[in-house]
Amino acid sequence: MQNEQLSKQDHLQVETALEAVPEVLKWCEQFVSPLLPPKFCWECKTALIEGFTNAVRHAHKHLPQTTPIELELKLCSNYLEMKIWDQGEPFDLLAQLQEILEEIRQNKVDPLDMENHRGLLWMEQLMDELAYERLPDQRNCLVMRKQL
Question: Which domains does the chain show, CATH number per domain?
Answer without folding.
Answer: 6-147 (3.30.565.10)
